TrEMBL record:
Species classification: Bacteria, Pseudomonadati, Pseudomonadota, Gammaproteobacteria, Vibrionales
InterPro entries: DUF3303
Species of origin: Photobacterium marinum
Protein name per the record: DUF3303 domain-containing protein
Superkingdom of this protein's organism: Bacteria
Amino acid sequence: MTFLITWQLHQGKLHPTLAHFSQLTEQQDQEMMGDDIKMIGRWHDLVSGTGIAICESDNIEAVTAYALRWNNEMDITLQVVVDDEQARALGNRLLV
């Protein structure tokens, strides 16, 4: 499954959270995610304290646990999304 994660940092949390994140090595970040999550990419709007991430996993509990590690610093939404190919296949099933 592919997940779209969006976040909005809590008021006053931008600088401390950015300082914490910037000190994480890629290995530490992967350890926080665990073996069941493949991070496709993250994009940050540092001025507004918002961002998005796309990850893949077959384990919703692992993705939820990872989001909860950051939930104290920000409001997070977690959505399952499909790509064009999957959307077309689902759409074609509706035509039958």
